[in-house]
C-alpha cells in the first residue's frame, strides 16, 4: 500500500521522550494533518539528544521516505544539538539570518524580556537551507533538500510546530507532489465486543476490494470501525468508500452510536445543539472530567451550564440536596443517590438534561460489596431518569475515562429514547 | 552515552498511529518504567499494519538495540497481522497453547460473552517463543530470542501491556542484565524564561562532569530542569548528582516551585495534606479541568471537597452568589468576579482554601478589550484573597492547561505567603 505513494517519516528529538517525561502529541497531530492532505505517514521515530542517534535516524529515514519531518531540539538552551548537526549534515555552516534576527528581537522587545547572546544564536540557520518563517516563536523552520529527499526541521513546541506545518510545510508539499487520495470513513459502535463484531461482519469484510481496508479501534469500551480507501480519482474513490460504508452501517445498525469520526463529547454537544437544549453534570468519582470533556470544545457555552463536582457526601447534600437518609441507607455509590443527584443538579442549574455519576475509581476505597471500579451512572431530564451500574477493571485514570464515556453514552441513549438501557 | 549500556528499542504497530487517530501513550509509559529500572530507551519507532514495514522495523531495531519491545497488532480482529509475521520471522509456525486457551475460555465464560473461532485463534502462539501470561486480557505476551537479541511482543491495550511489563518483562530483563545506574533529579521553576535561566546558570552548567547532564523541559509556562547521571556505582553516582542538584537549587532559589519531579496538582495535594487543609474550586473557563487534575490523583478525597463549574453567568449568581451588579459593571472576566467566586465557593463548600478562574479560552468570545487568552485567576481563604490577570496566546486546549497550571501555582504562592504575587 505504502509503496504506491510518497511517504513521510517523522523524527522527533528529545531525551524527554526517551525517558517518558513527556508524551509525544506532535507526531499524532502531524499525522492527522498530513493524512487529511493525502500524504501517507510511513514511519515515526523518536530519538534522544544524541548526535550519533540523530544522524543515524536522518540516514535511515532518508532511505525509507521521500519526506522527513523533524521536530524538537531547536530551543535556545544548551541541550540543543540539532541545529549544528543539521548544518554539518547538509554540508554548510551556520550563518546569521537577518530577517529571523529582526523577528526574534521584536518578540523580545514586545514582551519586555531581556535579549541575550543566546537569543541571537536562535537567528542562526544552516546555509543552504530555506528558512520557514515562524510567526509564533523564535526558532525558525528549516527546509533542506538532499539527494531527492526533503528534510524539514521544526521546533518541538506544539503551537509553533502547528503554525509552521499549516502555513508553510503542508502547502509546499501539496504544490510539489501529486499526493493521490486517501479517504477515511469511521463509525462508532457501543455495546458489542470486538470478536463478536468481527464475526458479524466477516463476510462483508472479506469481500472488500483490495484498495479499501477496515480497522478496528477500541475506544473506552466502544469500538470505532474505520474504512480507508486509496485511489487516484477522488470522486470514484469517495463513491466506492461510501458504498461500502453504507453496507457497514446496515450491518452494525443495532450498535451504531455515530456514523462519523466523532468523539462522544462532540456527539453529545451536537445532539444538544440540534435540540437547543442545555446540559448540566453532577460528578462525584469523575471529579470534573465530564465537564472538562464538554467544555474542552469550542462553543460549549451554547449547550452547557456547568457542573457540581460533589466529591464529598457533604457537598452532595449541600449543593445537590441528596438526602442524608439515602446516603446512609444505600451509600454514595448507589442508584438512589445518582437519581437524587440528577434532580438536584437540574434544580440547582435550571438545565434541560443532566448526567450524574458516583463510583469508586481506585486504587483504594473498594469493599467486597462494591469493589474498585463500581460506578452508578444516571441521565435524565425533569420527566424521567435512567440509571445503570458499571464495573470497570482498569487503573484510576482509565476508570475515570471509561465512566465519563459511558455516562455520555447513557445520555445519548436517553435523548434518543432507546430501550432497553 | 548510549553506547556504554544495553539499549532498548520500542516498536509500536498500528495504522491508527500513522493517521494520528490515537496518541501513543504506551511508549512514554514503557520508557518511564524502563528508565526507572536503569534501562536506557534508545529509539522508539511506530509503523503501520504493513507486513513489510513491520519486518523492516524488526531488522533495523535489531541492529540498534539488544532488546526490542513491541506493542500492538495482537487483538482478535482481521487487521492484525503481527502474530503470523512474528511466527515467520522467528522461523516457526503458529501452535495452540493449552494454558492460554484455557485462560481465554475462562475470561469469556466469566463475562458471559460468546466464545468464537476467532477467540480460539488468540490462544495461538509462534512455536519457539516463551509465553508471558497476560492475566489482564486474552492476548499473551511473547518472548523471542534471536542472534543475541531479545524481542518481546505485547498487546497494545495499555492496561494489558502494563501488566505484562510490570509482572514479566522488566523483572526478566533485570535478572538477565547488569543495567548500571541512571539517576534523575528534577526541579520546577516558575516566573523565568528559558534563555534567561540558561544564562543565569551557564557557568555552573559548563562545569558539570561529563556523566551528568542537564535538560530544560518547558511545561505550561514553567520550566523543569532535569539532571541525569550515568554511573556504575549507585551510591557514588547518587552523591555526585545530589551535590550538583543542591548547587542548582541555590542558583534557582528565587524561581523554585518544587525540588522534585512533581506536577503542580501533585504539589498542591501534598501541601494541602501536610497542612491538613481542604480545597474547593470555582471554575468558569477551565470547565472542570482543575477539579480533574486534583481528583485524578489517588487519595484526592482527603484534601478536596469539590468544584462549582459555573460556566454561565446565571450559575455564578445562583451557586456562587456573584452579584449581578459586579457582572454587569466589570464583566465575568474581571478581578471583582473571581474574588466573589472565591468567597462564594468557600461558603458553599465549607472549604479552607479556594481557587477561582474566569477567562476567554477561544477561539471565539474575545473583544479588543479582553482578547482571547485573557484570564483572571484568584486564590484565597477566609482571611485573604489574591488575584492576578494572565494573557495566554495558545489554542483553546493549551489556554485551559496553562490557566489551570497557573491557578494552582497562584494557590501555592498564596499558601506559602509569597510576595509579590
Structural overview:
- The structure is a homodimer of 421-residue chains.
- With 421 residues, chain A is α/β, with parallel strands linked by helices.
- The first copy, chain A, has 3 domains: 2-176, Molybdenum Cofactor Biosythetic Enzyme, Chain A (3-Layer(aba) Sandwich), CATH 3.40.980.10; 181-258, 2-Layer Sandwich (Alpha-Beta Plaits), CATH 3.30.70; 264-416, Maf protein, CATH 3.90.950.
- Chain A is built from 16 helices and 17 strands.
- Chain A has a 6-stranded mixed beta sheet, with helices on both faces.
- In chain A, a hairpin with an 8-residue loop joins β6 (130-132) and β7 (141-146).
- In chain A, α2 packs parallel to α7 and α11 runs parallel beside α16.
- The mean pLDDT of chain A is 90.
- Chains A and B meet through α1, α2, β2, α3 and α6 of A and α1, α2, β2, α3 and α6 of B.
- β2 of chain A pairs antiparallel with β2 of chain B.
What's a quick, concise take on this entry?
Chain A is an alpha/beta fold. Chain A is built from 16 helices and 17 strands.
Number of helices of chain A: 16
**Taking strands numbered 1, 2, ... along the chain, how are they ordered across the largest sheet of chain A?**
2-1-3-8-7-6
- What is the correct CATH architecture of the largest domain in chain A? 3-Layer(aba) Sandwich
Shape of chain A: globular
Task: Tell me the CATH superfamily of the largest domain in chain A.
Answer: MoaB/Mog-like domain
Instruction: Tally the structural domains of chain A.
Output: 3
As a percent range, the share of strand residues of chain A is: 15-25%
The chain pair with the largest interface is: A-B, 117 and 116 residues
Count of DSSP strands of chain A: 17
Give the CATH class of the largest domain in chain A. Alpha Beta
Structural class of chain A: alpha/beta
Which radius of gyration of chain A do the C-alpha atoms yield?
Answer: 26 Å
Spans where pLDDT lies below 50 across 5 or more residues of chain A: none
Distance between the ends of chain A: 42 Å
**Largest sheet of chain A at a glance?**
6 strands, mixed
Which range best describes the helical content of chain A: under 10%, 10-25%, 25-40%, 40-55%, 55-70% or over 70%?
A: 40-55%
CATH topology of the largest domain in chain A: Molybdenum Cofactor Biosythetic Enzyme, Chain A
Mean pLDDT of chain A: 90
Amino acid at each position: 500500500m505504502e509503496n504506491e505513494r510518497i511517504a513521510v517519516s517523522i523524527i522527533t528529538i528529545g531525551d524527554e521522550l526517551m525517558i517518558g517525561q513527556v508524551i509525544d502529541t506532535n507526531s499524532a497531530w502531524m499525522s492527522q494533518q498530513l493524512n487529511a492532505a493525502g500524504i501517507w505517514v510511513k514511519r515515526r521515530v523518536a530519538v534522544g539528544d544524541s548526535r550519533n542517534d540523530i544522524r543515524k535516524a536522518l540516514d535511515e529515514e532518508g532511505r525509507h521516505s521521500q519526506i522527513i519531518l523533524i521536530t524538537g531540539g531547536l530551543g535556545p538552551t544548551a541541550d540543543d544539538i540539532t541545529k549544528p548537526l543539521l548544518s554539518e549534515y547538509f554540508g554548510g555552516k551556520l550563518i546569521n539570518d537577518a530577517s529571523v534576527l529582526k523577528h526574534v528581537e521584536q518578540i523580545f522587545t514586545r514582551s519586555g524580556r531581556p535579549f541575550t547572546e543566546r537569543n541571537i544564536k536562535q537567528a542562526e540557520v544552516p546555509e543552504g537551507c530555506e528558512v520557514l518563517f515562524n510567526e509564533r516563536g523564535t526558532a525558525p523552520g528549516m527546509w533542506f533538500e538532499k539527494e531527492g529527499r526533503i528534510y524539514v526541521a521544526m521546533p518541538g513546541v506544539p503551537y509553533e510546530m502547528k503554525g509552521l506545518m499549516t502555513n508553510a510545510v503542508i502547502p509546499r508539499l501539496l504544490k510539489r507532489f501529486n499526493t493521490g487520495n486517501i479517504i477515511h470513513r469511521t463509525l462508532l459502535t457501543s455495546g458489542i465486543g470486538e470478536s463478536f463484531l468481527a464475526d458479524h461482519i466477516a463476510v462483508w469484510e472479506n469481500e472488500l476490494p483490495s484498495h479499501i481496508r477496515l480497522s478496528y479501534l477500541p475506544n473506552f469500551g466502544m469500538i470505532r470501525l474505520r474504512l480507508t480507501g486509496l485511489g487516484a480519482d477522488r470522486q470514484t474513490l469517495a463513491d466506492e468508500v461510501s458504498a461500502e460504508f453504507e453496507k457497514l452501517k446496515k450491518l452494525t445498525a443495532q450498535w451504531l452510536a455515530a456514523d462519523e469520526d466523532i468523539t462522544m463529547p462532540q456527539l453529545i454537544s451536537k445532539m444538544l445543539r440540534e435540540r437547543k437544549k442545555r446540559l448540566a453534570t453532577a460528578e462525584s468519582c469523575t471529579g470534573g472530567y465530564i465537564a472538562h470533556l464538554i467544555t474542552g470544545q469550542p462553543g460549549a457555552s451554547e449547550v452547557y451550564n456547568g457542573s457540581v463536582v460533589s466529591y464529598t457526601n457533604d457537598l452532595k447534600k449541600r449543593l445537590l440536596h441528596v438526602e442524608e437518609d439515602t446516603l446512609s441507607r444505600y451509600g454514595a455509590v448507589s442508584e438512589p443517590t445518582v437519581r437524587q443527584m440528577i434532580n438536584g443538579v437540574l434544580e440547582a442549574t435550571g438545565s434541560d438534561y443532566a448526567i450524574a455519576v458516583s463510583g469508586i475509581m481506585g486504587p483504594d476505597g473498594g469493599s467486597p460489596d462494591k469493589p474498585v471500579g463500581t460506578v452508578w451512572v444516571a441521565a435524565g431530564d425533569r420527566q424521567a431518569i435512567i440509571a445503570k451500574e458499571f464495573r470497570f477493571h482498569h487503573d484510576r485514570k482509565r476508570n475515570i475515562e471509561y465512566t465519563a464515556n459511558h455516562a455520555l453514552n447513557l445520555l445519548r441513549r436517553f435523548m434518543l429514547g432507546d430501550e432497553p438501557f
